[in-house]
Every structure is written in C-alpha cells, then in structure tokens.
Amino acid sequence: xxxxxxxxxxxxxxxxxxxxxxxxxxxxxxxxxxxxxxxxxxxxxxxxxxxxxxxxxxxxxxxxxxxxxxxxxxxxxxxxxxxxxxxxxxxxxxxxxxxxxxxxxxxxxxxxxxxxxxxxxxxxxxxxxxxxxxxxxxxxxxxxxxxxxxxxxxxxxxxxxxxxxxxxxxxxxxxxxxxxxxxxxxxxxxxxxxx
Length: 195
Hints:
The protein has one domain (46-191): Alpha-Beta Complex (UDP-galactose 4-epimerase, domain 1), CATH 3.90.25.10. Helix content is 45%, strand content 12%. It contains nine helices and seven strands; from the N terminus they run αββαββααββααβααα. The radius of gyration is 18 Å and the shape is globular.
C-alpha cells in the first residue's frame, strides 16, 4: 500500500488504494471532463468523515466516529475500536449540508476548470472526542464508551488521511467547525438532547 502524505492539499494527486476509491476518482474525472466540454456544470466535493451522524450504528469502519458520541448521549454503551491517539478528519452533518448547498450555489466561474474540492474539516483525536464528551455531558455518559481495539478496523482507519490543507475551499467561502466540542454540541442541539 502506498504511503499517504502527512498532510494532503489541493495539489495532492489522487492515488486510490481500493476499487471504491478508484471508482470515486473516475467519477471526479468524468464530472470535470463533461464540465469542460459544456455538457454539464458539475462540481465534486470530497467529504471528511461525517460526525456526529444521527441514526443507528452500522457496519462501516467509520461508524464508531459517531457512535462513541451518539450512543452515550442516548444512554447506550458504545465500542471504540481504535486507540485514543487515532486522528480523524471530521465534519458535522450540519456543515456538510451547508457545504453541499453552498457548492451548488457558487457560480460556475468560481470553480473554473478545477471541479473537485476537498471540503474543510477538522483533525480530531479520538481521545479528544471522548474528553470533550466528558466535559460536556459528564463522567456517567463518557464512561459508556468501552475501548476495544479491533485490528481490522484500526488498519482501515489508519490508512485514511487525517490532515488536510483546504486553502481553496476557504478562499471560496466554505467553513467548518473549530474543534471536537463544537461537533458534539452541534449534534446535541440538532437532536434536542438535554445534558
């Protein structure tokens, strides 16, 4: 597997290491090419891991990134399959929706010939997420998180880039949260949870 640079930026060439990643890059190239030819006015945004997602846990390797916050806030035990020092590139559901609408509403001229954009997010350590939850909701809630490392999930998550420079997105007016606490508070407010 090819080593990912420590920090990815707008000039980092895609180098997918899975069929899923290769298919996404193919679609990005098609959107760019069809836009160049005038067939469509396409825009492609690359999403960080979305957290804290509402709903139920699923089998996705990223599911824990929401589950370690969502489940305890709802009084349910959550399993964390990665170490506390694992870093993730995150964006809240609210911000991703705002970003998708903003990307759609930007004039075509703002995109120019570059039709692919890394959305801004924040690099957050899993330990920081847990500590932020503890500060916001208390020990009883945070203690519902059980650390149970899963080597398979850890290997997948550690292969994901966790640090990005998204200067182009910021220059176009996109925004993100500032820290783990703001992600958690956005979920609490959105879901009407009392803490």
